[in-house]
């Protein structure tokens, strides 16, 4: 798992018109090439009467799979410019399809490059993008004398508490960025004179959207809904 990557939380659409040609962009979260191709096929059926459905998808945290297509447009005027925009945004696990309804006027090579690039930018602007951070779910157990210091450290670092349990001891679970977990553990150990027990439970990705913490299935909750909308 890499420390952080940018992806789609909720897909969107955008449209531009250039010399009467309509360029409709659709942005979707996809986590495999199979998902990307399935979504692409659904969009081709939705826009069955369009002249072109050009696309780009990047799959994998380390961009293991990268594909783009001009879909009948002159070579290098659609797929590659679209890819440049998506890579420039630093996105992973994303599919962008730009559907073109021809307006009767040729745009030329430069015009096509600009139109497809702008269409992708419009689609991304209407989507919700997030930074997924590799985190560690950490279980902390302490006595009541130590909880105040621990809470202070968590607030200082902006670490969210997932759950807490107060019995004869206090147990809390927190989600810590992987890059910060060792330092936080050292600070808690020092702040409680070694009395706090710390257990690293698992690594998982999380993100924040409008101040809301999202992780687990919540990160992909819109993917299936959007797939259903396409039929």
UniProtKB/TrEMBL annotation:
Q: Which GO terms describe its biological process?
A: regulation of translational initiation
Question: Domain of life here?
Answer: Bacteria
Instruction: Write down a Pfam family by its short name.
Output: Impact_N
Residue limits of the UPF0029 domain?
Answer: 140-195
| Name this protein carries in UniProt | YigZ family protein
Which family does this protein fall into?
Belongs to the IMPACT family.
Enumerate the spans annotated as Impact N-terminal domain: 19-123
What's a GO cellular component annotated to this UniProt protein? cytoplasm
């Amino acid at each position: 798992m890499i420390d952080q990557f940018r992806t789609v939380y909720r897909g969107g659409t955008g449209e531009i018109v250039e010399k009467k040609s309509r360029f409709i962009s659709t942005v979707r979260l996809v986590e495999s090439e199979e998902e990307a191709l399935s979504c692409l096929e659904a969009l081709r059926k939705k826009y069955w009467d369009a002249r072109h459905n050009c696309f780009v998808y990047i799959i994998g945290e380390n961009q293991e799979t990268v594909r783009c297509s001009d879909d009948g447009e002159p070579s290098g005027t659609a797929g590659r410019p679209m890819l440049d925009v998506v890579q420039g945004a630093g996105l992973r696990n994303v599919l962008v399809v730009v559907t073109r309804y021809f307006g009767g006027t040729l745009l030329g090579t430069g015009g096509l490059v600009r139109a497809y690039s702008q269409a992708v930018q419009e689609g991304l602007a209407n989507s919700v993008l997030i930074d997924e951070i590799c985190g560690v779910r950490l279980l902390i157990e302490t006595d009541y004398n130590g909880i105040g210091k621990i809470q202070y450290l968590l607030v200082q670092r902006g670490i969210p508490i997932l759950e807490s349990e107060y019995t004869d001891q206090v147990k809390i679970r927190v989600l810590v960025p992987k890059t910060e977990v060792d330092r936080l553990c050292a600070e808690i150990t020092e702040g409680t004179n070694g009395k706090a027990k710390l257990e690293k439970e698992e690594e998982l990705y999380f993100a924040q959207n409008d101040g809301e913490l999202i992780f687990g299935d919540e990160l992909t909750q819109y993917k299936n809904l959007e797939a259903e909308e396409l039929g």
